[in-house]
Structure formats: structure tokens, C-alpha cells
Amino acid sequence: MSSPLIAGVDEAGRGPLAGPVVAAAVILPNGYNNDEIKDSKCLSPRRREELFELLRKDALSIGISLVGPREIDDNDILWASLEAMRKAVLRLKLVPELLLVDGIHTIPDIEIPQRAIPKGDSKYTVISAASIVAKVVRDRIMCAWDKVYPQYGFAKHKGYPTKEHREAIMRYGPSPIHRLSFKGVM
Where do the domains of the chain lie, and which CATH numbers do they carry? Predict the structure, then answer.
């Protein structure tokens, strides 16, 4: 009896004041083991980038999706996170038999069996892999936005509510990629 095809699903960017929320779904080969793959928050940016490139080679399939600031404002961040996750799963080239979803919520409108796992990104390699992919993709997006709106320092803080970021919002007002519904933006 073969092992089921499992996808780990996670997102990056729920807390920032600007930019999208990005989700990734990753399917690794059965029995895949790499002790260096762990929750993206526990890795340096350089190590995340290195592991991202490794995962691009080793994963059986990777699906990535994002939901932008206007959709976040029009709905809410929980809806946006789950919607990004749903779209990431649908972008997988293989259909998994089980989803392991980081957090306390399962993904709506998905027919695949799933389990929500609080702190799953520190418990399951496949969820850690998804956390790395989502974080690297989001960080790259925010670095690209930094070139468009350099006054906000997105390359440094990635849109998170640092003191410098809040001061930039007060000085320049919100940019088109700020989440207007978030406290501290308006």
C-alpha cells in the first residue's frame, strides 16, 4: 500500500500593513526528509532563499497564489488567507489526497480531505516547506514594490508595522499597496 500524496499549505503576510498575503501548497516526495526545512520564521532570509531553490528542485509540485490589498480590504485578512490557500492548492499539478493546513482553519470550498494543524509549520516538513515558499515569494514581491515606492522601506520591513514603516505612512500617507482597513494605515 503506497503512502497518500500529501500537500502542506501555509501563508505569509497576514500581519503586514501593506502588500498581498501569499500562500503556497507543496507536495514533497514520500519519505522526503531534510532537517534544515523548518518554519520560515526560524530561518535567516539567505537560508530561506537557499531552501526555496532546493524545494523548487525537490518538490513534486508547488502551487502559489496571492490575494492583494484591495481584496483584503473588501473582505478581511482571514478570508484573504484562506482564499490564497485555496487558489494555491488548485494550482498544484498533482491532486493531493490530503492537505495539512497550518493554523486552526481548514480551507473552504476544497473537496480534498484536510486537517488544520496549529503551529503546523513547526511540526511537519511539508508545511514548513510551504511556509518557506510563501515567505520567499512574498518577500520578493515586497522588494519589487520597494523600487516603486522607496520612501516606505518595503525591502527592509516587508510591510510589517515597524516604527519606521508607521512613520513613513504618517509622512507620505498610504501607498496604493497599503491595506487601508488595517489599524495604523489611515
Answer: 6-138 (3.30.420.10)
